What does this fold into?
Amino acid sequence: MKHLLSIDELSEADLREILRITPSFAEVAQRRIAKVPALRGQTVALLFYEDSTRTRLSFEVAAKRLSADTLNVSVKTSSVNKGESLRDTAETIEAMGIDAVVVRHRSSGVPWQLTKWLDASVINAGDGWHQHPTQALLDCFTLQQKLGDLAGSHIVLVGDIKHSRVARSDVQALTMLGAEVTLVAPPTLLPPAIGTWPVRTSHDLDASLVDADAVYLLRMQSERQHEALVPDLREYSTLYGLTAARAAKLSPHVPILHPGPMNRGVEIAADVPDLEQVVVVDQVRNGVAVRMAVLFLLLGSGVNDLPKVHAQPQADANVGTAV
It folds into this structure.
């Protein structure tokens, strides 16, 4: 595997392999010195044309924990603002010596285009409404931690499905692992081609929550909307927001997920994120481990160089030595 562009380009075996090795990297974070030399001497460039907190920082932390160098390109203060093209920017970065580029862009298809221009590995950190594969991977890993095998589990995704690259990637990954997915949204926030997706759809959140094994909330992506798709946010929140009353009806074992950033008071009530079953922090933590696994598989020398999972107390752990 040279690139990670979308979930649908992964086989089920690829997906399960990433999830299988992720615990080795999650363990690294528990060490006194959270670092292994797996990618020493390699450089990962972060090229983000859209704002990001969780994804950009977790990729940076992931690369550094693998001992790779990082090249963080601030597009807002780069020559892009002088009219430099995407190709020229990417080729300039590669000329400085990189092994991988992590790219986020408002236009769908940009990561695929970069693979035609660059020799470096390309990782899609979100392209338009299209794909966000590492988010789907970390979501699957988090759900497996809470639910075990996802085959037959019922996952409810709620919110702005139409504009969500997270929803598209998660649906592909979850169904590949055997989960059943229900999308809950008003008709205006469902994609036109929803009939081709391997999911059920509903406009009734309360009915969908009755047998949910997990609930995934998506924010209203107003920055991608060019028309009024709901009457107002208050009405939307009443019909499709996870209120405290709705959360109270869920079993305490039902995890509640959100990709962030959360719009409290819209898709999730202000006090719901404080509930124990909300696993947003776990998602962020797991995002680092999953992205370490992805970088290792793309740039590492093989599974024999996976970090050892130390059995000794953390106080005795030092810089990890690859097997």
